[in-house]
Amino acid sequence: MAEHTWLRRRTPAAAVLLALLTLLVFLPALRNGFVFDDREYILDNPAVRQGLTLEGVAWALTAFHAANWHPLTWLSHMIDVSLFGLAPSGHHLTSVAIHALAASALFLALSRLTGAFWGSLIAASLFALHPLRGEPVAWAAARKHVLAAGLLSLTLLAWQRHLSRPAPGRYLAALALFALGLAANPMLAILPALLLLLDWWPLGRFPLGQAGRGGARWLVEEKIPFLVLSCAAAVLAFTAQFSGGNLSSLSDLPLGPRLANAATSGAAYLVYAAWPTRLSFFYEYPLGGIPPWRLGLSALFLAAITALVVRERRLRPWLAVGWGWYLVTLLPVAGLIQIGAQGMADRYAYIPLVGPFLAGSLWLAELCTERCPLRLPASLLAGTAVLACALLAVRQTGFWRDEVSLWTRALEVAGESSMAHNHLGLALEKQGRAQDAEGHYRAALRLAPDHGEALGNLGALLAAGGRFQEAVGFLARAVTLVPASAVYRNNLGLALHLLGRQAEARASLEEALRLDPGYPEAHNNLGLILVAEGRLEAAEAEFRRAVDLREGYAEARSNLGRVLLALEARSRRASAGSVRDGH
Q: Structure pTM?
């Protein structure tokens, strides 16, 4: 009786201990700042900066901001602002806590579905502590991934509870959790396929050919509401990406290179899962093509795993289910629909690697049985793997301290990259290291002479250093390559103004405001040109507009004050002149 009680209590106790260990490993993330997309998601996002409000809720449900539709993710950021303001430590604490709870819920879901305590615990521990988790956990803008993993695990728990004793309320609970998961990250649209995999094993609900409520047709029909939600979320996600201009067309990137990148990245994630020592924030898309030897090895590696799981499907069905989990969940982020400039990303493997972790852990657990002569080495291997992952995860989290550390690491690991050099230059410039920043901008342009962003950044840096003539050359090229950029036109206009080329400067700034009427810097700079031309009333209007657009815009407010003083002085002179004329 005592042993039975311990067995009943060990699962929740293990779940709590796993959550606490996960918190301990990732707490160093609280020392990190905001990096990269955190500015667009949080710092410069007016809807998020105001915290949780009714207007913010409406915005989150309808906005395609940053080319994404994930209202629950936006709401979580708003709650963070309400609780912690814009202090990054609070936002990171939320991500770490969600990840810890996701790991705990995953362990409970796997153990209840499979009945394998130790295999599920090892799999959930690898999910929780693997250094590949550094990116989704330590990067605030990757919140959607940890939220999605937590809600996926809760959905699986609710689904298992419904299957243990079917009831409409339990079914609706699973469906509601799934809807929340889609609202956090539409990547979860693949859940119906996962549920069918689990029907085969471990649930054993797939008696092919059987008619009625236990047959294969019923197993599909019961998931139709889930499939409807999946389709709706997929349409919203595609629309958001399309509206943001993030999707690469087949003419720009044909299907062949996409398939090649999907194969090589699919193999690479598995290699990094087994040997996670050279992880990077950014893996640039191989626009120059993938070496045939690498593509061949990747295809052979994936084919060998597939052959193994097919051969073992009857004796060890969990291998096929784990492999199927990996392939199915990787499909939305494999690059067949290419988004952005990356060929792969650590965060994309966050949920997919649950499958290989489960398959490998159950195989290890099989070797750890009392009758197996490999019990001791298998147990030592499992413990060593979890401990090594925890230590490497602490190290990987540290690379997210700031953007200089992040992009320096990317260049060390992934090699020369125009994008990495450009972003490292930006990070160094923010730290006041102008000379180092210039070197990286120029390195970016050596690798990609038509890199519009690097041209614009180098031009702005040179202008800030008083090298206006050189700056105009780079900014003019940036405007030619990226004609829709209001930022580059604004910077070009300011540099031209400081060179005394007022007509050209005004034309550039007016075009910047045509592209972005709500651009406060462009209004301020246009006001400066109007002052130089003696058009004080028009300059006043531009400065007022800049102040209205940005609260606390000190430079524009100062310029407005000087113009008002100049107008007042002019008015006094005019009054004094009219008095003398009258006298």
A: 0.88
